[in-house]
Amino acid sequence: MRSADIRQTFLDFFAERGHQVVPSSPLVPENDPTLLFVNAGMVQFKETFLGHEKRDYHRAVSSQRCVRAGGKHNDLENVGYTARHHTFFEMLGNFSFGDYFKRDAIRYAWDLLTGPYGLSPERLWVTVYVDDDEAARIWLDEIGVDPARFSRIDGDDNFWSMGDTGPCGPCSEIFYDHGPEVPGGPPGTPEEDGDRYVEIWNLVFMQYDRQADGTMSELPHPSVDTGMGLERLAAVLQGNQSNYDIDLFRHLMEAAALAAGVDFDRDNSHLKVIADHIRSVAFLIVDGVLPSNEGRGYVLRRIIRRAIRHGFQLGTREPFFHRMVQPLVEEMGEAYPELAEQADRVARILEKEEQRFAETLDAGMKHLEEAFANLQDDQLDGGVIFRLYDTYGFPADLTADIARERGVGVDMAGFEQHMEAQRERARAAGQFGVDYHAGIHTDAETEFLGYDALEAEGTVVALFRG
Ligand code: ATP
Ligand code: MG
Ligand code: MG
Ligand code: MG
Fold first, then answer.
1. Whose CA is nearest to atom 8 of ligand 1?
2. What DSSP string runs through 266-315?
């Protein structure tokens, strides 16, 4: 099944069961300065779940474009290292606003996976929250899931909450088992970090209202919010262990090899990173974000620079990243006409960023190589990280990324001291006066702390699953 068919099958399945098909919202949340980027399908329905907004339907289905590259959910550092995390991905989701609850949500998910998608029950593993007897009963007694492929999980992974107070509830997750040849253990065991069991679908049962004193009362209208990664599902359905082996990523990695002038190699993590990053970067630009030194624009710039750096590691010294736009349009332009329409604009913006960064990338990399050569211990000095940032435009996480590849640690505390000293100097010079939360300091840590802090202060913090 091609990715496009997998997406359509999901939408059709739920439309046939009374769900309104709702288009993906843009990646920049509307009227929500507290949230960096849309990171789950439920974001556009947040107000409906809270009961603040009425819609003329009680069931919805969507394929939502998501970015997890900052804020509460940040998978940027996972990209290139795991087989299942992307900065940009599509989340397939069905939603019930006070309509059906656990029984139907579970039944739908099981019927879709084992029916139209044709997955064998022996390949699936189901978890529920530790004390969710109701969901356990439905899975074991009504669906007939093998108790040997079922577990109860304690902790945040299986309990979703909106914040210290408000709607919350247990979730139930469905994993795909790639089989005993692949290292890794079932969810909830110490070996679960392996690639054998891959989480594909999360069903959240919004069931309780948590009070300030910690007590929980039943919500009058329990709701359902689910999310399944299209790329993970495509990997499973196409018989691949890695998302990077699905049709779409294979083509993008081939395009990356061509653009960078190297041979294609499916295990090359530089190609994976470039193929991943072109998607988040292009869609962020399409949705109105521009590279800049603050806020969302800075996160975009960091992702672009990370991609360019990986091209540099491949040996390319010419701007290449903008040449990924056309291949992306070939893969995704049909599902997202706005991408096709803005392709030239996106490519122009990227090429400009490449030219800008090229001026200092070469010199910065030399500086960094010298620092590696002169290491006193196994750690990169905070001053080096600061200089790379300040003089060459290397975001701290970019430096940390390269260090990680070399097995070298980074002195982030030392870096922070240098940053603080620079802030002091700016303050003393009277140039300060910019909103701290806007991330004007352009370093990764304060950037994300800014958004995290905002989210923690606001009401939306834990509307997003962990
Ligand atoms: P994981 O534990 O693998 O990091 P998660 O628990 O953070 O995933 P959820 O927040 O439950 O993920 O999101 C719902 C679904 O979205 C997941 O089951 C998965 O299929 C998909 N998903 C989550 N994060 C990513 C990502 N970075 N890239 C691709 N798909 C993702
Ligand atoms: Mg998880
Ligand atoms: Mg999850
Ligand atoms: Mg995660």
1. 199
2. TT-HHHHHHHHHHHHHHHHHHTT----SSHHHHHHHHHHHHHHHHHHHHT
Residue 96, helix vs strand vs coil: strand
Tell me the residue type at 93. G
Question: What sign has the CA pseudo-torsion 373, 377, 379, 383?
Answer: negative
Distance from C-alpha of 317 to C-alpha of 8, rounded to nearest angstrom: 41
Which residues, 6+ apart, have CB-to-CB distance to 355 below 8 Å? 319
Determine the angle formed by the axes of helices 247-260 and 269-286, rounding to 10 degrees. 100
Q: DSSP code of 318?
A: S
Q: Which ligand minimizes its atom distance to the CA of 66?
A: 1
> Of 274, 279, 242, whose CA–CA distance to 257 is shortest?
274
**Residue 465 beta carbon below 6 angstroms from any ligand 1 atom:** yes
Q: What is the value of pTM for the model shown?
A: 0.88
Q: Token match 């909830």: residue?
A: 188
Identify the three-state secondary structure at position 445: helix
- Which candidate, 292, 295, 245, places its Cα nearest to that of 266? 245
Query: Helix, strand, or coil here: 223?
Result: strand
Please say whether the beta carbons of 60 and 22 come within 8 A. Answer: yes
Where do we find the tokens 């240098």?
418
Cβ neighbourhood burial of 271 (10 Å; 0-12, 13-18, 19+): buried
Q: Which of 232, 237, 240, 243 to mutate to test the pocket of ligand 1 (most atoms within 8 A of CB)?
A: 232
Ligand number with the minimum distance to the CA of 91: 1
Distance of CA 200 from the midpoint of ligand 4 (Å): 11
Locate the ligand 1 atom nearest the alpha carbon of residue 86 and give its number.
Answer: 28
Contacts of 37 (CB under 8 A, 6+ apart): 27, 28, 29, 66, 67, 68, 69, 70, 71, 284, 296, 299
Three-class secondary structure of residue 466 per DSSP = coil
pLDDT tens string, the chain, 466 residues long: the values are 888 899 999 999 999 999 999 999 999 998 777 789 999 999 899 888 888 889 999 999 999 999 999 877 789 989 988 999 999 999 999 999 999 999 999 999 999 999 999 999 999 999 999 999 999 999 999 999 999 999 999 988 899 876 676 778 999 999 999 999 999 999 988 888 888 999 999 999 998 888 888 888 888 789 999 999 999 999 999 999 999 999 999 999 999 999 999 999 999 999 999 999 999 999 999 999 999 988 999 999 999 999 999 999 999 999 999 999 999 999 999 989 999 999 999 999 999 999 999 989 999 999 999 999 999 888 999 999 999 999 998 989 899 989 998 999 999 999 999 999 988 888 887 654 433 333 333 333 333 333 333 333 222 222 222 2
Instruction: Enter the DSSP assignment of 36.
Output: S
Ligand 1 atom at shortest distance from the alpha carbon of 79 = 27
**ipTM for the complex?**
0.99
